[in-house]
């Protein structure tokens, strides 16, 4: 049986392990954290992510674990609607709505379906192999794992990528995100833009709300962020203050960064996947979706011949890197703070026809017909 080693047990790594095992590979998953990290607040799965999960036979479980997004769109800090997302129309065009669920629940679904994870097995180095010899993965415990395929799914600061593609550097955006869950029943979701900061809201099962706020990193507090967030957004439109007041559990703090692209996604028998290949800002909600699409494509294209990895890269790299560029641009625009820039952003967003917005979203997500390409 063909052997594959997946480095990293995040969402993308687990998805690739599931997809490869379904394709007949013998899969070993190595993860440096013990236990594998399952922390998180919420995650929104757009229709393209759900189609990829369908190919892993996990789509219905994800839908059942989440809440279908209610109506939403983009607002100003005062609550003026600039653009609406018609949830029913999205489902008509895409065959699915947006499913929002706790990120730990999605992680648990993937973990349960994946091959066993060897936790506490950080990778020290990889011999990439070639057409005549297998790759070899060395871990911190002295383990030596030969494989016909190595999947580097070890995230933004990938050890494997750094060894082979050091030119792919982490790029700080100058913004910091705060993510939390609140005991609040949401009537309308979406994102609201201020001057230099923005807030997003989405419904979670059980009458809860997933919320995130992004501010310039230089303004982020050093201590407990929740009192600061409540004061910072106290004057924003309803229900932003109410959601922050109803926050439960910890507030997760993450400086936002993305990745300058590596020269290639494969070398010898090693292939990059997910954030290790194309880490992006969260502004389009596409980080997990693109990793899931990578996983499905890799399982379909990879063989014991390492030259097959060129087909995987050709299939996925242009689209994933285009999404990463669009995401970075979207984040920069949402964080504009100069009065003239904010006025221009407001005017242009409000003037964009709904049909044009829908067409742009469909280009980003693909169409339900592309699901045929993902049938195992």
TrEMBL record:
InterPro entries: FAD-bd (IPR002938), FAD-dep_Monooxygenase_BioMet (IPR050493), FAD/NAD-bd_sf (IPR036188)
Any Pfam family hit: FAD_binding_3
Taxon lineage: Bacteria, Bacillati, Actinomycetota, Actinomycetes, Pseudonocardiales
Keyword vocabulary terms for this entry: Monooxygenase, Oxidoreductase
Xref: PANTHER family: MONOOXYGENASE (PTHR13789), PUTATIVE (AFU_ORTHOLOGUE AFUA_6G14510)-RELATED (PTHR13789:SF309)
Domain FAD-binding: 4-164, 263-327
Chain segments annotated as coiled-coil in the UniProt record: none
Taxonomic source organism: Actinomycetospora straminea
Gene3D superfamilies: FAD/NAD(P)-binding domain
GO function terms (MF aspect): monooxygenase activity
SUPFAM superfamilies for the chain: FAD/NAD(P)-binding domain
Name this protein carries in UniProt: FAD-dependent monooxygenase
């Amino acid at each position: 049986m063909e052997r594959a080693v997946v480095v990293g047990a995040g969402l993308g790594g687990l998805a690739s392990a599931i997809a490869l095992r379904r394709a007949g590979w013998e899969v070993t998953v190595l993860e440096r954290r013990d236990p594998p990290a399952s922390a998180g607040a919420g995650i929104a799965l757009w229709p393209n992510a759900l189609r990829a999960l369908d190919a892993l036979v996990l789509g219905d479980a994800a839908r059942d674990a989440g809440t279908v997004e209610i109506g939403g769109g983009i607002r100003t800090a005062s609550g003026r609607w600039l653009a609406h997302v018609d949830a029913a129309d999205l489902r008509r065009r895409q065959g699915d709505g947006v499913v929002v669920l706790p990120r730990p629940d999605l992680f648990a679904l993937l973990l349960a379906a994946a091959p066993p994870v060897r936790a506490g097995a950080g990778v020290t180095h990889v011999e990439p192999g070639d057409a005549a010899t297998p790759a070899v993965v060395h871990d911190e415990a002295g383990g030596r794992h030969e494989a016909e395929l190595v999947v580097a799914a070890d995230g933004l600061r990938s050890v494997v990528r750094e060894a082979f593609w050091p030119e792919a550097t982490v790029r700080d955006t100058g913004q910091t995100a705060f993510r939390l869950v609140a005991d609040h029943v949401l009537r309308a979701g979406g994102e609201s833009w201020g001057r230099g900061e923005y807030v997003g809201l989405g419904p979670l099962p059980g009458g809860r709300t997933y919320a995130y706020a992004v501010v310039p990193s230089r303004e982020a507090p050093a201590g407990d962020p929740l009192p600061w967030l409540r004061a910072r957004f106290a004057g924003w439109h309803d229900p932003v203050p109410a959601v922050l007041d109803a926050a439960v559990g910890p507030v997760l703090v993450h400086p936002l960064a993305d990745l300058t692209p590596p020269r290639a996604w494969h070398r010898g028998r090693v292939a990059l996947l997910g954030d290790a290949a194309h880490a992006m800002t969260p502004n389009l909600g596409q980080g997990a979706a693109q990793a899931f699409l990578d996983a499905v494509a890799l399982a379909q294209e990879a063989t014991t011949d390492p030259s097959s990895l060129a087909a995987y890269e050709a299939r996925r790299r242009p689209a994933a890197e285009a999404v990463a560029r669009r995401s970075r641009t979207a984040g920069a625009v949402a964080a504009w703070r100069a009065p003239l820039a904010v006025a221009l952003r407001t005017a242009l967003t409000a003037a964009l026809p709904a049909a044009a917005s829908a067409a742009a979203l469909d280009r980003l997500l693909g169409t339900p017909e592309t699901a045929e390409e993902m049938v195992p």
